[in-house]
Amino acid sequence: MCAGLPPRVRADLIEPLCVAALNTPAADASAQVLLRVLRDALFSGPGAADLLLPRAPLDRLLPRPAVAWLQAQGAAVHFTHRVVAR
Q1: Ranges under pLDDT 50 in the chain
Q2: 47: domain range?
Q3: Any domain includes 44
Q4: Domains in the chain, number
């Protein structure tokens, strides 16, 4: 898809878009998937690409409730310990 583009366009536009949209470097990404994501985000109407910012810290939204649930189920949760065996 980018074969005919100048190197600066690839480096300054395509590469950041690809990493932001797919979390993948452009050289490893699918052009078809990138184009579909961009089409859906940019041309799918209102709300398709809304930026959502949480009002609470992310640890309060995700990990803390998960840890509380695991502990309520009887699981032992250890932080800052490396898993060396199962």
Answers
A1: none
A2: 7-72
A3: yes
A4: 1
